């Protein structure tokens, strides 16, 4: 059924298809037409959280938390919504989303388009989902990079009571200078600030919400080693590897190879796995890693676990393969 639906949807504009799909999922769930999938697999402890299975939804698919209940019915072990910023913003000019079906890839330069943290919280409060929910936070495009911590602090404080964990997104290639925050000194300063705020919020709410950080695949071993040192030093709770890549060489002479933005799907799998492998070696079990990037079939998920991930997340593979990929990945990991 999904193959038939995809053949129709892939004839439409990618961004319009994205919104149509979310709207349809939301409507079908309200009508009770999405059966709840119970994908109990390898029960997993992640950042102190107990997951029914280690296969999650990656951030970016449900930026505003508008479709939480429907995604929750698809059998994921956990969901991550966002990236969300303090203020609403339209993101980058359209067109900004491109499918590359010949390579099972997606290019996006969305630019953190979202309705803002307050709108997301209203959506979360209106949902009935009771599984593990992560909130992915970022900075507004208009906020100078030297003031980035202010935006992350606003989102952290507002999201804290509504999240099971919070992810600090410093690796999107579509917000100017954002990846500069991955540098050793900049990363250490930002994460120390957020960990201090986490301690304050823990005391105020009587609830500990783990903090993870999401990194890029476009890193060399020295940078990976530096990041591992920082996240261990500040005692982050988890790390997500990886976001999209700016390297389009895997697309060869494809007409979309010159499009700006982050490339996901099959073309990022090798780079993402290499970062995951090196990161796991340098972290040496000090904190868990969530592996994401290029999971297009079940064995890709199992491979990330073998390389050192505790859990995995899906996005592009879900677009190309459909919801059955969740169940298949759970089975492969089990």
UniProtKB/TrEMBL annotation:
Its EC number is 1.3.5.2. Substrate binds at residues 63, 108-112, 169, 174, 243-244. Transmembrane segments: none annotated. PROSITE patterns: DHODEHASE_1 (PS00911). Its cofactor is FMN. This is Dihydroorotate dehydrogenase (quinone). Its main location: membrane. FMN binds at residues 59-63, 83, 136, 169, 214, 242, 265, 294, 315-316.
